Task: inverse folding
């Protein structure tokens, strides 16, 4: 108990004094996850729209598969990417193993099902009458789709936030294909797992607090937006 | 050229026939009301005409263009139409942006858009509301925004599905006033569905009666309400005295029709021996205690069976061999001391009776 208390105080000191290492790690976590999230969103919004606005054979099944993949283990995605980008793999010549690029590729794959699936749900949640009203007012197909996306905006933003949260909080994938290289691929989660095993609780706690604080910040910003 | 020409239009849902071989013409600029009880397919017909749904069979021509199935043509023609749904849906944006949608989608310039929206808002009396989020409006306000939104694109036909069904009487009055103004000021044809016959009568130049999935009769309000052509229409428009009879004599236009043991004088064109239904509107019957000298050719004596107050009126049912319904004002009912069981005389003119064919 004493240990934990002292650890917390030291952690706060690290944060308040803007310890360069802590800031650097937190910053890296943030930009890697943000990049993954943006890239995934660019793919997922059109993909989710295509799935929602079209009738095709196996649509229900595809949505079920996506939903199952929400909870795919991060290490499974890590392993999958590992096989591709390791020296002997088909993309081995790119030499991206243990780089932030590898981590971003992994995270994009990890969160694509979540953002796509939740985008489909968000669009299905829009009153069917919206699309029909748009059509009756003379919207073409694209104009109708944009309007429905706009009506679903809050649910879609929350889908993107879910994706971001998953990316920023995963650890298995970053460890496997990022390698937790200090000053290069070390992120909040990989640092926590390493420092904790080394007994360096203060740093772990400080990073953990920052992670929770970030999550809080994102949620508050989202709520503000929704209630505007 | 006829603006909308519908031939043998049929719509089925899951093998169940909702509309059966509808033939209908809508002319440029007219006000047409589609009346009929709930569940007869008014909404379905409007959705077919607005090209939101495709018919199972039959054809729709708009301004000479076949728009029954061709996707591109349906899209282009749809931009010349508009619809105010029974429960209008507004988008989660300001009133102004809601109304702007149709114009933006047609690539109008923003200064033109502003001008048109201001005019449309003025017509429905909603100028002060333009910055409000449309989702926060009341039912009547939403209806007015939906009308402005449908009108702003200057459609050739504006469809309105039960424009006042969910509104209180005051708001209904306001909406009807707006529609009457549109009818007067705009070249837009109005096609409205309503289960409220009197609304159809107030707002339309022509009425179509939809019963049993068919258009049973189309005509002027006067035709429909005074000269129904079938028993179904007569019952739907509320003619309460419908008596089976047979034409027994004919003297040019003056017929004698036998109903039970009574002979009624009717002005009409029917052959001797024809089986008919005799239709008499309650308000065309005059009651008195004794046969009065009047121009009414028909006079029947009967006993008062029932008296039902109806606001300032009293509905009186007498038995004169068959039940006959009439109305008198409350005042005259009191003055004349009408009571159940009293004998009174009912008279009505030969021209107050309308005959329709009877098959059995
Ligand atoms: N999409 C649909 N699927 C199946 N049945 C429908 C559908 N739309 C309407 N119907 C049926 O068609 C009939 C006519 O409905 P509707 O056109 O709404 O009548 P109205 O507007 O005159 O009240 C009803 O029996 C209704 O249940
Ligand atoms: Mg309806």
Result:
């Amino acid at each position: 108990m004493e240990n934990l208390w002292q650890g917390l105080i030291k952690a706060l000191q690290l944060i308040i004094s803007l310890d360069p290492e802590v800031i650097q790690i937190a910053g890296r976590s943030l930009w890697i996850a943000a990049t993954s999230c943006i890239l995934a969103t660019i793919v997922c919004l059109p993909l989710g729209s295509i799935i929602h606005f079209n009738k095709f054979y196996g649509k229900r099944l595809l949505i079920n598969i996506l939903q199952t993949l929400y909870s795919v283990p991060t290490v499974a995605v890590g392993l999958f990417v590992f096989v591709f980008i390791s020296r002997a793999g088909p993309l081995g010549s790119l030499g991206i193993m243990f780089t932030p690029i590898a981590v971003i590729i992994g995270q994009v794959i990890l969160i694509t099902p979540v953002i796509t699936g939740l985008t489909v749900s968000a669009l299905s949640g829009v009153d069917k009458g919206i699309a029909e009203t748009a059509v009756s007012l003379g919207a073409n197909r694209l104009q109708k789709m944009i309007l429905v996306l706009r009506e679903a905006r809050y649910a879609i933003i929350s889908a993107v936030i879910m994706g971001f949260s998953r990316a920023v909080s995963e650890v298995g994938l970053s460890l496997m294909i990022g390698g937790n290289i200090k000053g290069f691929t070390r992120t909040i989660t990989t640092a926590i797992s390493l420092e904790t095993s080394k007994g360096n609780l203060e740093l772990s706690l400080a990073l953990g607090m920052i992670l929770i604080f970030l999550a809080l910040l994102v949620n508050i910003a989202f709520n503000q937006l929704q209630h505007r | 050229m006829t603006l909308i020409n519908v031939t043998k239009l049929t719509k089925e849902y899951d093998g169940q026939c909702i509309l059966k071989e509808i033939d209908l013409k809508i002319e440029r600029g007219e006000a047409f009301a589609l009346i009929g009880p709930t569940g007869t397919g008014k909404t379905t017909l409007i959705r077919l005409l607005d090209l939101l749904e495709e018919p199972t069979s039959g054809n729709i021509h708009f301004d000479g263009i076949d728009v029954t199935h061709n996707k591109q043509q349906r899209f282009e023609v749809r931009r010349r139409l508009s619809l105010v749904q029974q429960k209008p849906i507004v988008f989660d944006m300001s009133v102004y942006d809601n109304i702007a949608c149709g114009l933006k989608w047609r690539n109008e310039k923003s200064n033109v858009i502003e001008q048109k929206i201001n005019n449309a808002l003025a017509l429905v009396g909603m100028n002060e509301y333009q910055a409000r989020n449309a989702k926060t409006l009341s039912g009547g306000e939403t209806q007015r925004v939906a009308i402005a939104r449908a009108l702003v694109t200057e459609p050739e036909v504006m469809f309105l599905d039960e424009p006042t069904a969910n509104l209180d009487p005051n708001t209904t009055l306001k909406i009807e006033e707006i529609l009457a103004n549109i009818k007067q000021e705009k070249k837009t044809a109005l096609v409205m569905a309503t289960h409220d016959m009197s609304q159809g009568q107030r707002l339309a130049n022509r009425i179509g009666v939809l019963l049993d999935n068919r258009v049973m009769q189309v005509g002027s309000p006067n035709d429909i309400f005074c000269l129904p052509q079938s028993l179904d229409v007569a019952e739907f428009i509320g003619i309460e005295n419908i008596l089976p009879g047979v034409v027994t004599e004919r003297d040019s236009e003056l017929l004698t029709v036998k109903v039970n043991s009574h002979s009624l004088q009717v002005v009409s064109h029917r052959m001797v021996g024809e089986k008919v239904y005799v239709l008499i509107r309650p308000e065309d019957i005059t009651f008195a205690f004794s046969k009065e000298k009047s121009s009414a050719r028909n006079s029947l004596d009967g006993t008062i069976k029932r008296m039902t107050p109806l606001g300032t009126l009293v509905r009186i049912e007498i038995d004169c061999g068959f039940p006959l319904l009439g109305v008198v004002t409350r005042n005259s009912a009191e003055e004349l001391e009408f009571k159940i069981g009293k004998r009174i005389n009912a008279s009505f003119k030969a021209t107050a009776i309308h005959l329709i064919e009877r098959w059995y």
Summary: The CA atoms of residues 12 and 165 of chain A lie 23 Å apart. Chain A has one domain: 2-227. Chain A has eleven helices and no strands.
